[in-house]
Design brief:
single chain, alpha+beta, Beta-galactosidase, Chain A, domain 5, ten-stranded antiparallel beta sheet, 17 helices
Length: about 600
Amino acid sequence: MAEIKNPNQQGGGSDMKSMLVPMLLIAGVLGGLQFYRSKHTQPLQAPSAQTQTAQQPSAVAPAAPGAAPQTTAQTATVGATQAAPVVTAAAEQTTTIENELYRIEFTNRGAEVKSWILKRYKDNKGVPLDLVHAGAAREFGAPLSLYTYDSGLTAQLRQALYVPSVTGKLTAPQTLSFTYSANGLDVTKTFRFDESYLLHADVVASRDGSPVRALIAWPGGFGDQDQVLDYNGSQLESSSEGKTDHVNFAKVSGGKTLDGPLDYVGVVDQFFGAVFIPDNPQTATAVSLHQTIDVEKLKRSTAITSTTPTGKIATVPIIGTALGDVSGHTQARIYAGPKSYTILHTVSTTGGETLAPIVDFGFFGIVGKPLFFALHFVQEHVASNWGWAIVVFTILINLVLLPLRILSMKSALKMQRLQPQMDAIKARYAKYKVTDPKRADMNAEIMQLQKDNGVNMFGGCIPTLIQLPLLIAMFSMLQKVVELRQAHWFWLHDLTAADPYHILPIVMVVSQFLVQFYMPSPGVDPQQQKMMAFMMPAFSGYMTWNYSSGLALYWCIGNLIMIVQQYVMNQSPLGREMRQIAAKRARRKTQTIQGKR
């Protein structure tokens, strides 16, 4: 019987071998394709990195055959084992952003500011003011650089060549971004500009995928600091939950961390400031920066006086600050410009507060602030020139005080009428020593006498008591408002600076002497009166010789008005009676002295 075989088993082992051959061929082809792709295909890049690489082909272009080897940063983008692309620029470049208020020049080295020109303000040479302090920027870093708690990383970030989103000259509103990626470090800095002094910053930094606390910084100083004393006006300004804090330069601790919540934090000098306003106050964090620099180093870029009165080389404080977020992603608005109350009052923080408290009117701010508002009103609606505004404002103040001066004169006359009786009381107690308890009885009798006759012992001092706070408040206010900086009035070119020719101080001394001469001083010892007649002019002359010429103008005009008012009042029946009583008293004292002789 013929043997029956399964046709599926025919060929047995040879058929299995024939099937393995095409399978191996397919595997070989697939493996070859994979190997080919790995050799000739670049890794995928993030969209932003691809965009930046397209704009900067020299940073990532492959080397031509026979050309010199590329740098590590350039060849890393084509390395098969590189996890992330390197994004760096091949050379330093600049980008300029401007609006009607400023012109800011960025460099891609560190993605920081080279110059920050304020178009409406001038320096002492008469050219538009550069807000960047050249000496401080050279030593400690430029504005909008990054600060970290690792000095080596901070230095790396400041030297890195970022890739800008755009170069050349731009007009706000505009957005400018800088990107840097190398050795596991990835940083993106984005700035948005509008028509105001404000700009918005967005900074993200990471290392090997982990967030890095990179704070955006204004390391310190401003371009208007030309003299040693200019640095002593620097302050660190901050606000937390509506509570403001003004820290004098001498009390600023370098490297101290300020934890949130922070409404704002910044550094200011006499007239200008740079303030960071975080988008997320609760997670904001800041660092105070305090450095010192030898003035000799500043002389390369400024005409600053380099020695102290003792002849030693001077060092000046450089105050700065930096703001970040604990998450590593910093978002904040930045105000860089004049400390103008009218402008700062319109800049709101995330919590609804304003930047107005940055203008510190001093201890008498409760008086100085209303005075500034009133002076500003006069300048806007009466006299556009600030010097004439001070003159008009001084006249108005003295007109308001005139009724008080008349009441003071009446009180002085009553005091003069009672003077013989008060002298008699004093004579009865003259035998007692000053420390004797009986002297208290003498003072009680005099006070009762004044009370019975309706005399207020402080009545003659009321105008002085009112004028003194006004004078101190004006002294503080006139030196701190940027509106009076470089304001002209005849020979005065800056009402916040001293009179260069000392004309007003001389007028001040003469007018103050005449005020003491014409002003009646009932009950005051003649020797004391003579002493005051010389001390007050000397004091006022010293104050106006060294400080704000605006203050000297206010004080001089006030004195001249007082002299005219007092002269007119002295010609009135009230004034004539006062002079007659004073003359009788003087004759009586002269006769008494001659009789004793």
